[in-house]
């Protein structure tokens, strides 16, 4: 069992302009939180996990450029999976299959997808954020072609019940062997690496992939045994 601890995907000074469960003018319910993030705001992973989708989503809500992270990548297909979804981005920093650490920048805020319909309303650029919790029903069928794995609002839950909740226990998360940032910085100092520009560091602990840092093209694998 591992613990998950979700954080909000943008800096504290960015306000919300639409909450979970609000009814839109067209009668549809809003199943996420909208953050009033200006163009180019860094969007950060709410918790560590595995990117299961990083592409344009034209259907299922017209999310535009979207990142979906599975925070339970080691849970079996039949076990509970918890995902977060980040929509309307202008650019993506991650690819499908990447392991990401908590608060890693995964993309920049934009207005792709339906967000462009809000032109001239002052809320064109925003982050639409969702938490999708399958509870006992197993893994979602994400794919790169347009399917976003859920049926209507099913499994999309209020993120406020997840932020900072210390009691979210799930099977086999990558959070089993956390590495402190300070320890990582020490290691990187010794290695004299410039991660963002040139390298990407993939960290394995006891054979488990626990996260990656940096966005460079060259990947270095660090294997640690505890
Ligand atoms: Zn929204």
Descriptive report:
This protein is mainly beta and 226 residues long. The protein is built from one helix and 15 strands. It has one helix at residues 181-191, and strands at 2-4, 16-18, 33-35, 42-44, 49-57, 64-70, 82-92, 99-100, 105-109, 127-133, 156-157, 168-170, 199-205, 208-213, 218-224. Residues 172-178 have low confidence and may be disordered. The structure holds zinc ion. Zinc ion (ZN) binds at residues 18, 30, 32, 34, 128.
Strand content: 25-35%
List each distinct ligand once. zinc ion
Please provide the ordered H/E string of secondary-structure elements: EEEEEEEEEEEEHEEE
Query: Please, how many domains?
Result: 2
Mean pLDDT: 78
Please tally the helical runs, counting DSSP H or I stretches of 4 or more residues. 1
> Mind telling me the CATH class of the largest domain?
Mainly Beta
What CATH calls the topology of the largest domain is Glucose Permease (Domain IIA)
Q: What is the C-alpha radius of gyration, as a whole number of Å?
A: 17 Å
Spatial shape? globular
SS content category = mainly beta
Low-confidence stretches: 172-178
Q: End-to-end distance, in Å?
A: 18 Å
Mind telling me which CATH architecture of the largest domain this is? Distorted Sandwich
CATH homologous superfamily designation of the largest domain: Glucose Permease (Domain IIA)
- Report the helical percentage: under 10%
Total strand segments? 15
**Major beta sheet, specifics?**
10 strands, antiparallel
């Amino acid at each position: 069992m591992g613990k998950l601890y979700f954080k909000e995907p943008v800096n504290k000074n960015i306000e919300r302009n639409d909450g979970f469960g609000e009814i839109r003018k067209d009668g549809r319910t809003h199943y996420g939180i909208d953050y009033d993030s200006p163009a180019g705001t860094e969007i950060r992973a709410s918790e560590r996990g595995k990117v299961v989708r990083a592409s344009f989503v034209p259907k299922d809500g017209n999310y535009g450029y979207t990142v979906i992270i599975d925070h339970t990548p080691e849970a079996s297909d039949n076990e509970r999976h918890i995902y977060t979804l980040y929509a309307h981005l202008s650019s993506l920093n991650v690819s499908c299959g990447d392991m990401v650490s908590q608060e890693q920048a995964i993309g920049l805020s934009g207005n792709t997808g339906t967000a462009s319909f809000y032109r001239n309303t002052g809320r064109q650029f925003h982050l639409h954020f969702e938490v999708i919790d399958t509870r006992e029903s197993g893994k979602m069928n994400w794919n790169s072609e347009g399917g976003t794995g859920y049926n209507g609002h099913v499994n999309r839950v209020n993120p406020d019940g997840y932020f900072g909740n210390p009691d979210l226990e799930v099977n086999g998360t990558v959070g089993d062997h956390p590495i402190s940032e300070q320890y990582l910085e020490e290691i990187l100092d010794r290695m004299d690496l410039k991660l963002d520009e040139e390298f990407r560091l993939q960290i394995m602990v006891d054979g488990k992939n626990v996260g990656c840092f940096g966005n460079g093209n060259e990947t270095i694998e660090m294997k640690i045994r505890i």
